[in-house]
Amino acid sequence: MDSTINKSKDVRLGNATGKAIALMNELRAVGGDIDLDLPRIIFVGKQSAGKSSLVEALTGVRLPRSHRTCTRCPIEVTTRRSTSSSWVCEISMRMTQSGGIGPTIVHEFKTLVDENEDIAKAIAEAQTNLLSLSSPSDDSMKLFSSDVVSVQISGPDLDDLALIDLPGLIQSQENKENEVYITAVENLVRSYMEQPNTCIVACISSDEDIENQKIFSMARKSDPEGNRTIGVLTKPDKVEKGLVDDIVSILQGKSYALLRGYFVIRSPNKDELDQINDSCRTDISTYLQGREIENLFFRENLIGKKIFEMSPDRCGTLNLRKQLSNMLKKMIDCNIPYVLEMAQKLVEQSKEELHVLGTCVSREDSRRVLNDIIREYGNIIGDYISSSGSHKSLWQEIRKVLQSSKRNIQNATPSFDVGGKLVYCSMLDEVTSDSVTDPIVLNVSKVAASELKRVNSPIQRRGGISWSLQFRKGSNGTSICVFAHDLPSGAKSVHVKYKIVPSGFSSAVVREHDDPDCGPSNPVERLITSHVGNKSLNPSGNVLIEVYISILVSKYLNRLFHHVSTINKRHHPGRDLLLCKKAM
Amino acid sequence: MNLKSNDNTSKPLCHIQKPYNVPDVKNFIRYSTRREINLPGPASYATSEELIKGSIVKWVDPAHECVNDIHHVLLKILCKDSANCLVNKVVSAQFPRLRRTFLKVISDHLDKLKADTLLRINEVLEMENALYTSNNIVFSNTRRQFQKLVRSYDNTQIADKKTAKLTAMEENQLNAILGKLGRSKDDLDLIPTLNALNEEALDVIAGVLSYFFIKEKVLVDSLHQHIIYHLVDKYAKEAADGLIKGTGLMSEGSDKLHELFAETEEAATKREKLKSDLMRRKQCLSLIENYF
Question: How much is the pTM?
Answer without folding.
Answer: 0.47
